[in-house]
Amino acid sequence: MLDTRPIADIRNLRVQFPTKKNTVVAVKDVSIDIKPGETVCVVGESGSGKSVTSMALMRLIGYGGGEIVNGELNFEHRDGRIEDLTKRSDAAMQDVRGNEIGMIFQEPMTSLNPVFTLGMQLTEGLIHHKKMSKAEARKAAIALLRQVRIPEPERRLDQYPHELSGGMRQRIVIAMALACQPRLLIADEPTTALDVTIQAEILALIDQLKKESGTAVLFITHDMAVVAQIADRVVVMFRGNKVEEGTVTEIFENPQHEYTRSLLAAVPRLGEMTGTEYPVPLRLMDGSDVAAEPIKGTDEVLLEVKGLTTRFPVKGGFLRRTVAQVHAVEDVSFTLKRGQTLSLVGESGCGKSSCGRSILRLVEPSAGEIRIDGEDVRAMSPSALRDARRDMQMVFQDPFASLDPQMVLGDQVAEPLKNYSICSGAEMDERVAKLFDRVELPRSFLKRYPHELSGGQRQRVAIARALALNPKLIVADEAVSALDVSVQAQVLNLMMELQAELGLSYLFISHDMAVVERVSHSVGVMYLGRIVEIGPRSAVFENPQHDYTKRLLSAVPVANPRERTLGQDREFRPIPSPIHPLDYAPEKSQYKQVGPEHFVIENAGT
After folding, report:
1. Where is the ABC transporter domain (predicted)?
2. pTM over the 0.85 mark
3. Contact 252/563 with Cβ under 8 angstroms?
């Protein structure tokens, strides 16, 4: 039975952002309360005011140029005192942040300091708030990393954020937020960068913390399947307003507001593509019909990868010599046909992103062959590679890290056109404006800076920039993971529309199995740097052969609150380390064919 008195009680909150031209009201008189042991999920489109509400509760909104102009932020401290946090000074808020209110931010690289080791950042809060010694804090930090399933936690404490994958960084941020066992945990898209197996475990971890300590959870997400699995109550926001609130069952089974109904209708569900051979566009939230013509592609091979291997050195000792290697990508082979999509799926740290970057030579492969249109990418000179990059572009996982904070967005999208002297003047301006139209962004955003946009809007700018040169191949590294369901549907449909029009090929790196099922012609499942199963999308999803593929599919959350599987009958397995000594010689991958173009690895068990 939940305590009737809320830990946090937001009343009539109004937040605005002054700009040169006018004042933008981001949150309009919103009231939300969160009781002990309760999870309240706030859902809505990108830019609806979800994150602004949470930032206001942490009193961080002022650092982003916003101001609280009305409302109360009542919070019950550990000693039972109830205080309106709007009256608390910035200096006094430091005792609350990270201690009584923990926060998991949407983009891990913006909440981790790139110049400090992970150990320093993890132990800082424990030393400051819990008065631990450095040794005690380090021991507690190692335990936290084990909780969030980081392999080799002792080694990770001495690493820097850039040395970890996006999913690994997000788990570090979650560990930092949980460190002081806060009374209120604000989770702003905490599982966006995580694959389904890790996501299930992190959600179970948050759920366990909530039950054991009575922690209240304010959970902000666009993933309606996650909402169905963890929420007690749901608040739906639209353009700064709270439009509906109710229990999770009421919202899913009897939504009252038109926006809530359209939000639920746009959710891609695993299994929707059963019986279909080719990708078809998603339903849009506005109910408009999209041409549901299947995208067949061609049988002509655009990209051929053979035996791709990428290893990163591990330095150690006084002279910083290479003492071991991270086997990030190990003996990976596949082909991608023109006009088709191959998706790579797998756990965070399995080598998906490293594989994509290796193909574009953003990181240098250790071995293997990469051919695009028959051209050997590894043999290209720097000038030839520069020319080849017109045909191959990348959309990165973290849009804030890939956009220049000091350039207006229009100039950033125009930059590839300038670099290759494709057009200039009025022609360039019109071409950039049309790219903004394509990704559903208003032309007024051309003069804005990245920090003035939400996470989803920034990702659309990154996609527009990748499309600028009309490439043949786009490596999309979690390109839609930061987008809410409505914008995700628009962007995916846009990508599929461009694929049909221009014969684009996508190497689609993702952990969202429902999205992968919707957009893919072929799917490769990666584990510890290797592809363990690869084949046509219908074969891999409807007839998975490898144990790891079956585990991935079984971990996908179901968008039905009556079918909760959180933490039930799930065997949490430690992830083996991909770090091996210099003399380690891995065996070649051997596959057996189990169907037409459907292969499963034989010699690398999981």
Report:
1. 10-264, 314-553
2. no
3. no
